[in-house]
Amino acid sequence: MALSDSVTTCLSPPVHYMICKLGFEKKDTYDITNILSENGEVCWQAVTEHVCYLESDHSVDYIKSIRSLGPVCESVNLHFKSLTKEQFVIQYALWFHWTNYTELFLEVFDVLQHAQTTEVVLGIMKLTSCLERALGDVYLLIGKDCPFLLRDLLASEQLAVVFGQAVMNVLRLFIGSPYGLNLRNVLWHGFASPQEIPAKYCAMLLFLTAGLGQLLQTYLLQTKCILVHRPYVIFMSLEELDVFPGKYLTISKFLLCYIYLNHETLSLAEELVKLSSFVLKPMLPFWMGALTAFKQSRYADCVILLLPQLEVGLRLLFTTTNKCPNRLLTAEVKFLSKMLAKHLDNEEVNQLPAVLEEPAMASEFLWDFLNHQEGPRIRDRLSHGEINLRAFPREVANQIVAFAITLLCRFSDEDMFAFKEHVVIKPLMNCASCYCSRFHPISRLKKQVLECMKSIHLWSELPTVPEEHIQTIKGLEGNGEASALILMMPEIISQLQQYMPQNRFSSDDPIDSVLTERLLTELCDTRICTLYSPRPVLEILVVLRKISTQCHQVSEQVIASTELRYKQWMNKTLRSRQRHNYLRMLNSIKFLSPVLRLILVLITLELVNIHLVCKKNPFDYHQYLKFLKSVLQYTENLVTYTSPEKNKWDETVELTNKALIKIRKISDRKLMLMQLAT
């Protein structure tokens, strides 16, 4: 990994020229009054005159345009430096209100007064994130579905209607186009070091944002429209993100350790940053800035600085181990996903997981926190302005910093053994090495199953009328459908029992609630590889999750209906037909409860064996998916029949009986498949 010492830039020669040199080629001194009126309005016509176009197709000539705007950017930077904070607030603060984050732009002004390179880069990253979010809000004044990518947003007709095409062309010189400076992508993907980003481009973005605010105000007055800001994304269930918890954590049966990113841990991390081969030397200020931000409780700043450095460190590992050094300097669509993929573009095996030693430690964590749709998707949401930076949770920053420390340790020299064994570092390494995915569809299905089981378990605690009342209902005794249902349950369980942990069912009650809950918990604790799940597995998971969702809805409906009807029974407000139907419901759910538990067992067994069967058995997925979809159809019908609007309890028993017949038939075949697979 000596390459980390030899790399001086991650910018390709054309991009390096574009960002670091092109805007400095014209030495003219530009008069700020050409683009700024006496009353503080941006003279957009004077700005857009610097945009040059190709004669061939009249598209933007990015090279000439950026060269021409170089002196303008410098003039704006000097203008801002000549202002006091009070003067800037009086003249410009109003024009940032449309972004819904005025104070951020005031912070960027403060940064420009000192021009510390790391803070300038951080300012650009936060500014572009906030600007993208605000532009998306403007887009929704006219359009419906806001584009996800900044380049598509800036190229949209909707923004051209509000601001004018010439204005949007100016903005695309700085952000959103790979042919321009592309500052947003270059920084968020970790290609530029602090010293490679001129402060004058940060000043120009600040200036342009104020100018956009002026144009927007004119548009809103003319159209009588009201700009509505979309709500921020809020991280729910923060405990699910608690990989490196700030509490007592069981490391083994005999050791409890308190893990927290305290001052001592962060001081050690600063030493590791200077020594680890995971860190590119030009990027060292970003790492130190991130750790400083964490110490100062600036958790959003910490993560914004750190995420691109994790990517560039992994990109260094990826390009070195796969012998493709040229890709260190290239920005590719979804490159992080490509780095974590099983195969390269040429179908050769990706060597990065082997270098990481513990794929679960890095790949699963990164997929969970950055990529999986049901995960926090921290980088996407931060870079697109979806998160309130003012209320960024420490819990999330804690995880990213702790994970970064484990990578610093893992890719360090042998003589750094003392660091890895340190009392505050070793627990972090232990946590990382046993990490299991929490947001892969497999993990989400496990959670769904257990939550559904807890819901069904509540049935036994529901209030009910005495059994003798149920027995008085004509037609319930000797019900053939119910009798057949009761007989089939033990048969299906006996077929599947050899694939379950021992002593999980009793002969008296083959699908006992407590025993089933223990079984499902034990099965869900089984480690299942989530990396590189093939398409057939993902297709099956989609259906299994839908089945689980429907079962849970049935359970919730049964609970709500039972509680309501019991209350009405006790208050004697039920009519004769309603009383009859209520007692039929109580009779039906006695059979329904074990059936739902059985379905959960089948789902979980399928989940545990899914990779094994798929790997060793080329059976017809379409046929098996057809069966699963028939089970899904049963559960969907069950949701309808058990809804308060329908209350079709006799039909529920009949429907369930037919479904069990199908399950019994397919379980025979599944047994054969599992035997072949084991």
Task: Describe the overall structure.
This protein is mainly alpha-helical and 678 residues long. The protein has three domains: 13-223, no CATH class; 259-434, no CATH class; 441-676, no CATH class. Helix content is 62%, strand content 1%. The protein contains 30 helices and two strands. The protein has helices at 3-6, 13-20, 44-48, 62-82, 85-92, 102-114, 117-139, 150-154, 157-163, 165-174, 183-188, 199-223, 263-275, 284-295, 299-321, 335-339, 352-356, 359-371, 378-383, 394-410, 417-420, 426-433, 441-457, 467-471, 480-496, 513-524, 535-570, 576-616, 621-641, 649-677, and strands at 248-250, 256-258. Strands 1-2 form a two-stranded antiparallel ribbon. Strand 1 and strand 2 form a beta hairpin. Helix 7 packs parallel to helix 12 and helix 15 runs parallel beside helix 20. It is globular, with a radius of gyration of 31 Å. The two termini are 41 Å apart. 41% of the residues are buried. Residues 248-259 and 671-678 have low confidence and may be disordered. This is EMARD protein. Residues 131-211 form the DUF4209 domain. It comes from Scopus umbretta (Hammerkop).
Q: Count of DSSP E strands?
A: 2
What are the segments in which pLDDT stays under 50 over at least 5 consecutive residues?
Answer: 248-259, 671-678
The fraction of residues assigned to DSSP E strands is under 5%
Q: Could you give the distance between the termini?
A: 41 Å
Number of helices: 30
Mean pLDDT: 86
- What's the arrangement of strands in the largest beta sheet? 1-2
- State the helicity in percent bands: 55-70%
User: How many distinct folded domains?
Assistant: 3
Structural class: mainly alpha
Which descriptor suits the 3D outline? globular
Task: Outline the biggest β-sheet.
Answer: 2 strands, antiparallel
